[in-house]
Structures are given as C-alpha cells and as structure tokens.
C-alpha cells in the first residue's frame, strides 16, 4: 500500500492520508469541500459537492488515473433534503469529465467535519 499526497486537494486534518494506492486500486479518504488553494469552504451545497468531487479527482489523478477510472463513490450529506441539488452537481461533474457514472451510496449523517454539508470518497481502478 502506498500513500497518495497532492497539493491539489486539502491536506488531511487528522491521522490519515488523502488516499492510498493498492495494486490497481486507488481509494481516497473522504473529501471535504475545501478549496485547497484558499482553504475556504463555500456555503452552497451543490458547490460543496462539486468541490468534494474535484478534490477526490485530484487524488485519483495524482495516482495516474482519471474520472473514468472511478468505479464507486460514497456521498455523505448532512441533510438528505439537499439530495436533488447534490445529485445534479454530481451528474454535471461526471458529464463534464466524459466519465460513466460509478456505483454510488448516499447517506445522511448527523454531522460532518468542519460542519460541511457534503463529504465524498471514491474508489478508482486502473483499466
């Protein structure tokens, strides 16, 4: 197992790494919607979803893969009433990258780190 680190995604805020590579598999840690350049988090839930996916893709790219290598995502949302907005941003993200939609789970959670509205983790596989 090899740790993946990139300045194009926020640094880990605890005792974990941004992602790991294990053979042909890349697994990211949950990505908060923090802009890695400004360290800020926007309030809009759709923009948070896009930023979380952008951060996850940066880690996947650091491992030499692209959006079309993502085979599974897990989306954590603070309020499932935001599902339609998150879903639209999610769809637009994968369409913009000409990538097929991966398998996905979406769960509502009581609270996310830094009071984010969204956190997303992905699994990518070399093809």
Observed structural traits:
2 helices, 6-stranded mixed beta sheet, 26% strand, single chain, 127 residues, 25% helix, 60s Ribosomal Protein L30, Chain: A, alpha+beta
Walk me through this protein's architecture:
This protein has 127 residues and is of the alpha+beta class. It has a single domain (2-125), classed as 2-Layer Sandwich (60s Ribosomal Protein L30, Chain: A). Helix content is 25%, strand content 26%. The protein contains two helices and six strands; from the N terminus they run βββαβαββ. The protein has helices spanning 45-62, 83-96; strands at residues 2-4, 19-22, 25-28, 70-77, 103-108, 118-125. A six-stranded mixed beta sheet has the order 1-2-3-6-4-5, with helices on one face. α1 runs parallel beside α2 (83-96). The longest helix has 18 residues, at 45-62. It is globular, with a radius of gyration of 13 Å. The two termini are 18 Å apart. The model has no long low-confidence stretch (mean pLDDT 97). This is Enamine/imine deaminase. It is an enzyme of class 3 (hydrolase). Belongs to the RutC family. Its EC number is 3.5.4.-. One of its GO terms (molecular function) is deaminase activity.
């Amino acid at each position: 197992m090899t740790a993946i680190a990139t300045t194009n995604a926020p640094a880990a805020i605890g005792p974990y790494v941004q992602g790991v590579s294990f053979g042909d598999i890349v697994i990211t840690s949950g990505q908060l919607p923090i802009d890695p350049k400004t360290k800020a988090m926007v309030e809009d839930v759709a923009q948070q979803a896009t930023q979380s996916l952008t951060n996850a893709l940066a880690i996947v790219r650091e491992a030499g893969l692209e959006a079309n290598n993502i085979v599974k995502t897990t989306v954590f949302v603070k309020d499932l009433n935001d599902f339609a907005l998150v879903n639209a941003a999610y769809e637009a993200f994968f369409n913009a990258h000409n990538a097929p939609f991966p398998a996905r789970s979406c769960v509502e959670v009581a609270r996310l780190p830094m009071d984010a509205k969204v956190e997303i983790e992905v699994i990518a596989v070399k093809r």
